[in-house]
């Protein structure tokens, strides 16, 4: 049986990642405007989602239904620059975790296609 990223990262590191990531996002001039609702609610949804996304229990689906990432993000104009800013915040947050650099790199690579899939405005959008 293959070890999941969830198992390698652990719940405490996921919680730390979400906290640090949203501290950065809410201060980032490029993307802060995309996060208008309650910070604690956003963090909790992200924690549930990341648990599931990284191979842990399907906590997000159990509470909120299928993630439908692109559909849930459609009400927000998201450009490629926004996705890059999001990834920059995620890279910084990952960099603060007390985990192996190889795991940090592998996790970041997992986030790139997902972040770019959220782009719904700009030159390269369908």
Automatic annotation (TrEMBL):
The protein's matches in InterPro entries, at most eight in alphabetical order, are given as: GlbO/GLB3-like, Globin-like_sf, Globin/Proto, Globin_bac-like_CS, Hemoglobin_trunc
Organism superkingdom: Bacteria
Concerning Gene3D superfamilies, the annotation shows: Globins
Q: Has UniProt tagged this entry with the keyword Protein biosynthesis?
A: no
Cofactor dependence = heme
Instruction: Tell me a Gene Ontology molecular-function term this record carries.
Output: heme binding
State the UniProt keywords alphabetically. Answer: Heme, Iron, Metal-binding, Transport
Instruction: Output the Pfam families linked to this UniProt entry.
Output: Bac_globin (PF01152)
Look up the coiled coil feature and give its residue ranges.
Answer: none
- State the family named in the UniProt similarity comment for this chain: Belongs to the truncated hemoglobin family. Group II subfamily.
Protein name per its UniProtKB record:
Globin
């Amino acid at each position: 049986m293959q070890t999941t990223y969830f198992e390698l990262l652990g719940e405490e590191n996921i919680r730390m990642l979400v906290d640090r990531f949203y501290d950065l996002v809410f201060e980032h001039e490029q993307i802060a405007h995309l996060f208008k609702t309650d910070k604690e609610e956003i963090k909790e949804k992200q924690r549930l989602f990341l648990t599931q996304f990284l191979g842990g229990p399907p906590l997000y689906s159990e509470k909120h239904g299928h993630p439908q990432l692109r559909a849930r993000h459609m009400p927000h104009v998201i450009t490629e620059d926004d996705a890059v800013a999001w990834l920059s915040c995620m890279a910084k947050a990952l960099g603060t975790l007390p985990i192996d650099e190889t795991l940090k790199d592998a996790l970041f690579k997992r986030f790139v296609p997902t972040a770019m899939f959220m782009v719904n405005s700009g030159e390269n959008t369908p």
